[in-house]
Design brief:
Layout (H helix, E strand, L loop, with lengths): L11 H10 L1 E6 L3 H15 L9 E4 L22 E5 L5 H7 L2 H11 L2 E12 L7 E5 L13 E6 L10 E3 L14 E2 L2 H7 L1 H4 L1 E3 L5 E5 L5 E3 L8 E10 L15 E5 L3
Antiparallel strand pairs: 1-10, 2-3, 3-4, 4-12, 4-13, 5-8, 5-11, 6-10, 6-12, 7-9, 7-11
Bound molecules: 2-oxoglutaric acid.
The site of 2-oxoglutaric acid (AKG) has 11 residues, from strand 6, strand 11 and strand 12.
Length: 262
């Protein structure tokens, strides 16, 4: 699925930027053919043409407002307006992308010899739809793990210009850890304290481009005002010995995706 030569991409500069700023563009890494195949597969999953027990669905709200999302509704029938699908690893095509050799190198450099998967998500904004996803961090009590996660690799399946709701980040905001112990959405008073609006950086990309996103960097995305869907895959990797801390249900076992021989 990778473009020729991309599995050997020189990583030093990218990883330095990632550590300093909380994000870094990898450039174009996914081939056009593979992007087309994954777009088609994403649609087949949203339309229920291919189904996997355990695949997680969350539909966009009727109003297009994040506050009106219905949590827990799951699959609500065939629709191109799902906001996100999780557990993409159940699908062999998406699993191939999750486990590609470039991701393997990056994950080993940042997380160590053993690497697990926390989540693999389809982030979808249908044409002239989707929502303003507020500033947030991807960690906190709901993540239920014994240490802060840090590595996410986000890859565009479609062009994602600003008008399609590309990802925006606040560079360096990951250095202070979680804005609140709950994690997730960053409160308005914290945003005004640092003037997030003024410091934001938009990350428009073409289909096939990837971005490293630190779980703690404040990020958000807008509505898709274009005639084309804006689909992307976001993969959160974990150091292999990360444990699930949830108590009410049996702890999750995180799927091992990469292991370097000792
Ligand atoms: O793709 C998006 O719109 C949101 C991505 C995101 O929030 C994430 O990868 O954590």
């Amino acid at each position: 699925m990778l473009l020729p030569g991309r599995s050997d991409l020189v990583l030093d500069g990218v990883l330095k930027d990632f550590v300093a700023n909380g994000y870094a563009k990898l450039g174009r890494v996914l081939s056009s053919e593979a992007a087309a195949v994954l777009r088609e597969r994403a649609d087949a999953l949203m339309l229920g043409e291919i189904q996997y027990p355990g695949l997680f669905y969350q539909h966009d709200s009727e109003s297009g407002r994040y506050e009106d999302l219905e949590f827990g509704a799951g699959w609500v029938g065939p629709s191109r307006n799902y906001r996100k699908l999780e557990k993409l690893e159940l699908d062999p095509l998406f699993l191939e992308w999750i486990e590609n050799p470039l991701h393997r190198r990056i994950a080993h450099r940042l997380l160590g010899k053993k690497v697990s998967l926390y989540r693999a998500v389809l982030w979808n904004k249908a044409s002239r739809a989707g929502m303003d996803l507020p500033w947030h961090q991807d960690d906190g009590v709901f993540w239920g793990i014994d240490r802060p996660p840090s590595l996410q690799i986000w890859t565009a399946l479609d062009d994602a210009p600003e008008s399609a709701g590309c990802v925006e980040v606040l560079p360096g905001s990951h250095h202070k850890g979680l804005a609140s112990p709950l994690g997730g959405t960053v409160r308005g008073d914290r945003l005004s304290e640092v003037d997030a609006e003024a410091g934001r950086v938009s990350l428009p990309v073409k289909a096939g481009e990837s971005i490293l996103i630190h779980n703690h960097v404040w990020h958000r995305s807008g509505r898709n005002e274009t005639a084309q869907a804006r689909r992307a895959i976001g993969i959160a990797y974990l150091a292999g010995d990360t444990r699930c801390t949830r108590k009410r249900r049996s702890p999750r076992e995180f799927k091992r995706v990469f292991e370097e021989r000792e």
